[in-house]
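Postdoc handover notes: sequence design on the structure in folder B. Input tokens:
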């Protein structure tokens, strides 16, 4: 089996991204941060993850610039984890995963959480990549140009 390339040398953006946030706990921490969670205890209660794993993932997300720590907003001695601009830009990734799951992992009529637009109270439209002409791009009309 060939040795894995170091993250900073990997020429594929998908591979670098998955290496950073592709594990279950990191993605669910980011999801919970979008849902307004900020404290260690909130993440732990929501996820049911062991303290050592949560500590490790939060540290990695802070080191990567996805989350930052700040003093608790209520003036207590606690620390809060807040999405940075880099972290907030993961919103489209989380929405894409959610929409794929809604489409493929639930039986017709099965109840699940919904992401809604607070302004309208309606579910957000399905996301899809579009070309410059506004047409939806399908896999067969795209290609990855590999680094040679």
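Designed sequence:
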């Amino acid at each position: 089996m060939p040795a894995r390339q170091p993250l900073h040398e990997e020429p594929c953006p998908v591979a670098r991204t998955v290496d950073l946030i592709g594990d279950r706990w990191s993605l669910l921490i980011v999801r919970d941060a979008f849902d307004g969670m900020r404290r260690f205890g909130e993440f732990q209660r929501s996820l049911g993850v062991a303290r050592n794993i949560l500590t490790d993932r939060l540290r990695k997300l802070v080191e990567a610039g996805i989350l930052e720590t700040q003093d608790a907003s209520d003036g207590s001695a606690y620390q809060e984890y807040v999405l940075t601009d880099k972290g907030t830009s993961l919103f489209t990734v989380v929405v894409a995963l959610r929409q794929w799951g809604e489409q493929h992992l639930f039986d017709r009529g099965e109840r699940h959480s919904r992401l809604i637009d607070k302004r309208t109270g309606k579910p957000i439209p399905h996301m899809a990549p579009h070309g410059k002409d506004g047409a939806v791009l399908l896999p067969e009309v795209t290609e990855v140009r590999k680094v040679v």
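Context for whoever picks this up: The first helix runs from residue 13 to 21. Don't rerun without checking with the PI first.
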